[in-house]
Protein: Excinuclease ABC subunit C
Amino acid sequence: MAPNTRSRANQVQLMPNEKDRHPLMSDSDINTIMLNGAQISLSKLKRAQKFDARLYYYAEISVYLEVSLSRGAGIADDTRKELEKIHAEATHYHMDANKLLNILEK
Structure:
């Protein structure tokens, strides 16, 4: 056998496994993504100057919360609770900004 030729057994061992070729997200990854996405949306909501922009970011946070309620999605209970807190904060901020906007318009 030539020095550069490998046997079938060696080729199988050298082939990357399925996870190496197509990395899958673990449960902890999806939890991190959900929390970071909601935090980013909350930050943008707080900086938004227009009602439509605030509503958009509030809706994004609502989607993160709704997705977290899906069973079997790999979302941890701690993540769900944290998303509920972010959603509550966003709700209060959005409502307060709307009240202020209504006062200024009068």
